[in-house]
Specification:
Strand order of the largest sheet: 4-5-8-7
Helix content: 40-55%
Radius of gyration: 20 Å
CATH architecture of the largest domain: 2-Layer Sandwich
CATH class of the largest domain: Alpha Beta
Distance between the termini: 13 Å
Length: 237
Amino acid sequence: MTTLHWFYTVNSVKNNQDIPLGPGPVRLAPRSISMPRARILEVLQASQSSETAASIAAQTGLHHNTVREHLDALVDLGLVDRVRSTPIGRGRPSWQFKASDLQTEHDPRVREFAGLAGALASYMATNSKDPRAEAIEAGRAWGKDMVARRGSTKKSQARKRVVEILDHLGFAPQANSRSTSAALTRCPLLDVARKYPEVVCAAHLGLVQGVMESFGAETDSAELHPFSEPGACRLVM
């Protein structure tokens, strides 16, 4: 672990005692909903707790009444849950809202994909002489294939392209200005990664290396620290 990474991790843990280490699950907004509703849904998905309509309005810049209308629609679609806040004093407690888990836990496509990934990771972890090395190689091939299908870019833009591809895959990366470091706040295979990190996380590192190699960029500095920070994994490039 690098000194910079150790400093970041230790201080993050001190300042975020209630946030578990590692990323959250991927929750995607259906293409059929409007941009304002997708924005509200993203705010709720990123939140560690339920939110009031007022707090959502403040974060999105939308009018309070408009937010309420969108929230009602999202509740009707089953994408958002409405819950009562803890009573304080007299009067009826206010409504709060949180993202529903239905999209990820009960979507059969998500379950089947995760099931296949789990089976492959289990087989590799059990039968491979070096699961990590083989997973990295598989990830490299995956990364190079993604670049081939998306087109080339300048060598100097390789790290930014890595961030773009990770965002496309659902990792929700939060990168620094030079894209040399990024917090991966979501994981599309979170449950499988927790069970077989030596395979899944290694494949994700290989993906990064494969993308960088496609543009002739050095990969020696690429490191992935799984479940190392409150709410994220840390990628260093």
